[in-house]
Amino acid sequence: MSRVSASLSGALSIIGREALRIVLPSWCTVCERELPWHDRVASCCDSCWRSLPRITSPKCRSCALPLPAEGICIQCSADPLPVGWCDAWGEYSGALERLLHAFKFERHDFLDAAFARLLHEAIVDRGDAEFDSVVPVPMHRAHERKRGYNQARLLAVALSRLTRIRCESRLLTRSGDSTKQSLLPRTARAANVRRAFKASPAVSGMSVLIVDDICTTGETLRACARELIDAGARRVCAISVAKAV
Questions:
Q1: Does 39 have pLDDT greater than 60?
Q2: Which residues pair with 53 in a beta bridge?
Q3: What pTM did the predictor assign?
Q4: Minimal CA–CA distance to 109: which of 142, 149, 77, 49?
Q5: What is the pLDDT of residues 72-104, one digit of tens each?
Q6: Quick one: which of 84, 28, 40 has its CA closest to 61?
Q7: b/e burial code for range 94-112 (CB count within 10 A of at least 16 → b)
Q8: What pLDDT score was predicted for residue 143?
Q9: Are 31 and 47 in contact (CB under 8 A)?
Q10: Would you say the C-alpha torsion 185, 209, 162, 18 has a positive or negative sign?
Q11: What is the chain's alpha carbon radius of gyration, rounded to the nearest angstrom?
């Protein structure tokens, strides 16, 4: 399929999904009240969307943890992530936690564009969009088949449309299966993903932005960034919709 055909197909799919949401009754994923078609963001009512817990304080430049002042958190001071910066739009709690859970586990894949707008907002506020490529955190093929999609890739593709920066998922792949990070204690997460990813030599000399939905301990982003740097990436930064605090 040509790039034009693929873009047209994607546009028609989005239009079809929007038409269904207008015609069929639905309820807000967060507050569970009836969702009016003219006053919502994807599957969230406007009121709940406006309540999303955005991080407005300074953040750790290594893991995006909210801080009282600019700098680096205590955890990262001993072993910072190998990134130029790491950012997150909001805190993984309340309405944002509920929506991300729906996005990730309940097939609310249509939230991709709305979440990408939050990522874009964070990038604009930071004033740094000098990237050659946006790269999603890859998912093992077996997990992706079971879920039906990789939510990080959906975010990266939607963000690419907003920023005009190419999304190139081929630059970073999952080289092996591993236990889900969310099922492990913090102390075991680094070892679990240490050799889980493989970067393409094509990344050499590139400035890359890694995209994910949630940053918890940061170990997944660390493993991805390290692989990209070892493969010759000139600069690596990372961004996620939410940071677990």
A1: yes
A2: none
A3: 0.84
A4: 149
A5: 999 999 999 999 999 999 999 999 999 999 999
A6: 84
A7: ebbbbbbebbbeeebbbbb
A8: 87
A9: yes
A10: negative
A11: 18
Extract the tokens encoding 174. 């999952």
- pLDDT tops 60 at residue 189: no
Residue keyed to tokens 């309820």: 27
HEC string for 138-167: CCCHHHHHHHCCCHHHHHHHHHHHHHCCCE
- The DSSP result for the chain, as a single string, is --HHHHHHHHHHHHHHHHHHHHHS--B-TTT-SB--TTSEETTEEHHHHHT--B--S-BBTTT--B-SSSB--HHHHHS--SSS-EEEEEESSHHHHHHHHHHHHS--GGGHHHHHHHHHHHHHHHT----SEEEEPP--HHHHHHHSS-HHHHHHHHHHHHH-PPB-GGGEEE-S----GGGS-HHHHHHHHTTSEEE-GGGTT-EEEEEEEEESSSHHHHHHHHHHHHTT-SEEEEEEEEE--
Please list, in sequence order, all residues whose beta carbon lies within 8 angstroms of the beta carbon of residue 83, skipping any fewer than 6 positions away.
62, 210, 221, 225, 236, 237, 238
The C-alpha torsion from 144 through 233 and 57 to 153, rounded to 10°, is -20
Task: Kindly state the average pLDDT of the residues 105-128.
Answer: 97
Across the strands, what pairs with 8? none
Write down the pLDDT at residue 52.
98
